[in-house]
Every structure is written in structure tokens, then in C-alpha cells.
């Protein structure tokens, strides 16, 4: 930029003022040089070297200007499903490598036509340097396939045909931004049921896409914050309450989210979705294109194989998806956003830290996994990967673990992982060449929440979830950890009980109930049938009894998640769960917010203190026997848990309390705990940008590994100092002392 001082200054000030809406300027560096005869402003091609610390943007929902263009018959992009501009469009899902130029994205397969080229080079155009810029003449196109992959229609006919089959109640697999979605008419019970049967997903709620904000507003309660989330650039699935009571009475089928007052709602976020949804004019189920637990399918070559038994028809396109990106899930808690599944629209935005971090790769846990990478002062968190049980998920996990460091040109110095040796993520970490730092599961949860809130120790962490391996080898899950800055101290935990059948118990709340009752009544349980419910068969009871008495396949756990399950079973809400956490959700949804009472509980005096739920369970059993009031019991149970947190926080005496772990996906529990802890004078923090579940754990593993590395360094420094001190004390000349140290150091390095 060359010119009179006045104009140069104006240019610099307008850089910030007039930048594109989505642009973020991290820093501007200016220096004045001799005039060189430049006569215009240029943006140069990025050079291939230099640090790749550039932020990669997530995929951005279609902006209002682009939406207007695709519905304007006089516009050259009328009806074009891949319209985008510098303010919107795909980013992370199409980037192959940095720097972010078209040649490094999957758009490199499409040469821009002269008109697109002109827009791309015109600084006054909305598409100036929009890397995925495209139009009907030069860009990607859609095609409509039958179940065998035969092309039935192309371009606008393909879109119309796709809308047609959804109208007929068929299952459409649509290649979207970050992968395939399965779509059916959300109003049709038969269509939704068929999708459930084919996807092997009996009960887990489906998300719904409404054609417009207005239509969503007609059927769902929308606070200002929720509306903001829905129309945000991230465009996540937002959990909303239905307006007209039961879902079946609304426009959509009750099978969309059985027994659930919340509906996951999203709006169209790509031009393809806008065109299809406007053509349809009614809400559709839009769920990840996969068999349950597998990662979302991204490639039309493999889609016939993977979704073959599920989809009736396909709407595909020829813009390659570089990495899978599920739809994110978010909700409002206490007036703030909380992300429950972090993928499209959020990943790979980093969590910023004040100090420089060593470069560390963290591989997460086992369920709902994501991966994290620290570079400088940023921790980049990958998109949601899923449960590592399925072979497909493991492959996606490995791809992502290799992808992140490559993208940011970072060579990790260490790898953070879980303490559990059987997690496939831990086993993957063991294959890597870098030093490995296992971080206890619940400690990682607490560190993640502290990191996202930029808190420094000390703090009390309440880490409640399903399961995680403890430092004593038992299954933890109802933990109170004091974080000291040099590790943690287990201040308190829920009383342990045995889970007959181990992992099976997560799917059968009645087993957790049995373990709980056995802990209270011991052998007496079998004689009187003390509250023994759950509809067990005679043979089953015999088997479970053996497990408990002989302590075979009945691990001890302090899990809060399993306590929820047990109570849901005892009050008759659910004996078998279609997915982990379903019983806890039933219990939450049953809460009568008017009921303020609490149950008794005990707190031991040892260290760690044991929080005894026995008095509470006895009262609950009494309630069930005398006057069954499920809504009241559910409320008192939640209230009691919040009181437990207050009591332990008072004993621990830390000012800051951090709430983390899968149990805090329970909005009622989170709100109660925050309110009661605040009333008692504590500063309370919870998750917002990083999920409270295991999707956030990789961030905590990074922080845990950093701490461990710092401690090792300190210990090494101390060792050196004490050796030197010994040398001086022994009256040796300092130099000789230093020489004496050498052989030992040499021996150390030989061992490495
Ligand atoms: Zn746009
Ligand atoms: Zn074009
Ligand atoms: Fe967890």
C-alpha cells in the first residue's frame, strides 16, 4: 500500500472496520517504508514456508446474502446448491492442508469460470478470495441415485426428485457439508419408525430440520438465546422444548424423540439444505448417515456399502468431503451456550491459554472421543469422532490423530491419554514414539473445565459421569477432586457399590439397582425381596446373586451415572435402557420443579470422605411403598445431589468449584448445583464451549500432561542443584564436581 500519509492511515483503520463479517484479525503489523512506486493494493499468494499458526475456520452456515441469491430468479446463482461467499460456506470440511488457498482444498477439482474468477479477484466483491467460490457453470453439482447407485436425475431435477421421495415417506441419504445425513418426513410415524428399524436405533432421539425459523418457532419454545444459537454461524442442533405438550400433538411424530420433552432442532445451513427444505415446506428428521455408533459416512463411493441397507435413495454431489463433521449439538444452560457434541461449526476453533504450552497430542477417552493438539498458546480440539467400539470409528480416530499435527505442521513432544489400559485410544498412544502421559479420567474432566474457563488452581472439581478408571484400579464416577496445581487429591466420592455384569449394567439400570440394594441389605436382600424389582427372571436372579456374592464380574464403582440408573429403576421409571444415560434422562425429565425437599445422606470422616446415599435410598424405597410420587421423588433426588455438592464444597473450603463429567449434561442437575453452590458463597464454573462429557476430555489430558512435564523438569532441576550442593559441601572444586556428574548423566541418557 503506497500513498499519502493520510490515505495510508485511513487504509489501516478501515482494515478493522470494513473487514468481512466472519473475518477475525488476530494482529496487524505496520511499518513505514520508502516509496517504491507501487500503484495498487494486492493480496499475494501465500508462500509455502513460514509457520502454519493460522487459524482454520470451521464450516460456516450460509449467510443471508447468499440465501437471497439462490432464491432470486434473476441471479446467476438461482437454485445453485453450492453458493457461498467470504462470509459463509465450507471451510474445515474441505481443507486438505494449509495455507487455506483453493489449491489446498477439495475445490481444486473445479476451475473457476471467468465470471467467478472476476469476483474472486475483485476486492469490492463479496466473493473476493472466497476459496470455495463456485457457480452453476463451473462448480460442483448434485445427482440423484437409486438404491443401487444408478443416476436417476441431475441438477435441479435431482433436487426435486429427492424432495419427492421424502414426501412419499422414503429414506433419503443426503451428502451434506460434513457427511451424509439420513432424512425422512418427520411428520410420518411410519417413516420415522422405518428409519429407526434400519438404523438399529430404537430410542435415541433424532434431530429435526425445520425449513425456517418461523416454522420452528410455531412448534418449539424459543428463548432469545436459543434463537441466537439456531441462526448462528455455527448452525448447530439446538435442544428445544416442544410448545404443544406431547410431540405427537405437534407437527412431528412422537417417535422422533420418544419420552423426551426436548427436540434437537436445526435450520438449513447450506444452500443445498435451503433449496430442499423450501421445496418440502415441512420438518424432516436429519440424522447422521451411519449405523449407530459408527462415524458419519462422507464418501459416495463407500456410501452404497455402508448405508446400503438403510437408505432408499441418495442425493450426492461431486465436492469431496476431506474430513467427517457431524452436526454439533448445543443448548442453553443458565442463559449461556453449552456444547454437547462439538463438530461442524465449532471444530477446530481452539481454546486459548495464557501461557505457551509444549506441543502435545491428547487422544481422549473411549466414548464420544475427540482429539486435541496444543500449539503455542492454543489447544485445537478435533471434531467429535464417536465411540471407538466400531472399526469404522477407530479408523476415523487414527485419521484424525494423524491429521491434526499434519495440518498445523506440529511435531508433538508428548502424548496425553487415559489411565485405562484397555481404551483403544490408550493403546494407540502406546504405539506412538513420544513419551506418554496417562491422566486420570476425572482429573482430566476437571482440568478441561478449568482450562476452558481459564482458571488457575486451586479449585474443587465435581467430576460425575458413568465410568472412568481410578488411580486405585476401581471404577470411579462420583468424584470430588481438589486440584492443587501439582496434581489432585480425592477429597470425597460417592459410596461404592457393585455392578453385576460390569459393562452390561450401563444398559440395564435394574442391575445398578440390584447392586445398590445388595450394598445396603447384603444377603437379606434375597429373602425379603427388599424393593427387588426390575422384572428379573428366576434364573437371572440366581446368576446375579452369584456375581455379587462371589464378587465375580461385579466391579466396585462410585459412579454417579449408575446411581441415577439405580434410582430410575427403583422408582419404576426404566429397567432397561436403549442407550447409556437414557434412565438418567427419564429421571431428569420427571422432576417436579415445585418440589424443594431433600433426602438424608451421610458423609464419612475419613479421607477421602465417603458420601453415603443409603439414608436417601431407604427414604426413596419408603416413598415408593407408601405414596408413589415419581415426580416428587425425582425432584428430591436431584435436590439431594446438589446438597451433597454443597456439603463437600464446604468441607473442602476451596473458593472455586468446577462442575464436569457426563452427568452435567443433565440441565436440571447443573442448574440446581450452580444455584445452591452460589447461594453458599462459592464461585461456580461449568462447561460451555467444550462438552462436559468425554468429548472434552482430550483438552484436560493436555493440561494434565503439561503439569506432569513441568513437574519432571522441576525434579530434574532439583536433582542437579542437590548434586552441585553436595559437591560444594564435600569441598571439591566446583569444576571437578561438575565433571563428577558426567558419568551419571551419561548413564541416564543410555537408559533412554
Ligand atoms: Zn454468503
Ligand atoms: Zn463460475
Ligand atoms: Fe467421563
Write the layout of secondary structure elements.
Blueprint: H1 5-17, H2 64-70, H3 114-121, E1 142-145, E2 151-154, H4 155-167, E3 172-175, E4 180-185, H5 189-199, E5 207-209, H6 213-219, H7 224-230, E6 237-241, E7 262-266, H8 271-280, E8 284-288, H9 300-306, E9 313-317, E10 329-333, E11 336-341, E12 350-357, E13 360-362, E14 372-381, H10 391-407, E15 414-418, H11 424-431, E16 436-439, H12 441-452, E17 459-469, E18 475-483, E19 488-494, E20 497-498, H13 509-521, H14 524-528, H15 538-550, E21 556-557, H16 560-570, H17 582-590, E22 602-603, E23 609-612, H18 614-626, H19 630-652, E24 656-660, H20 667-679, E25 683-685, H21 697-729, H22 734-751
Parallel strand pairs: 3-9, 5-7, 6-10, 13-15, 15-16, 17-24, 19-23, 24-25
Antiparallel strand pairs: 1-2, 1-9, 3-4, 4-8, 5-8, 6-7, 10-11, 12-14, 13-14, 17-18, 18-19, 20-21, 22-23
Quick overview of this protein structure:
The chain is of the alpha/beta class. 36% of the residues lie in helices and 17% in strands.
Strand order of the largest sheet: 2-1-9-3-4-8-5-7-6-10-11
Which ligands does the model contain, each kind named once? zinc ion, fe (iii) ion
Number of E-state strands: 25
Q: What's the CATH topology label of the domain at 462-692?
A: Nucleotidyltransferase, domain 5
Can you say what the CATH homologous superfamily of the domain at 462-692 is? ATPase, nucleotide binding domain
Strand pairing plus helix content: what structural class?
alpha/beta
The first-level CATH class name of the domain at 462-692: Alpha Beta
* Percentage beta strand: 15-25%
| Radius of gyration over C-alpha positions, nearest whole angstrom | 29 Å
Q: So what's the overall shape?
A: globular
Largest sheet: 11 strands, mixed
Q: List low-confidence stretches.
A: 728-752
First and last CA, distance: 54 Å
What's the rounded overall pLDDT mean?
90
Number of helices: 22
Helix content range: 25-40%
Task: Quickly give the CATH architecture of the domain at 462-692.
Answer: 2-Layer Sandwich
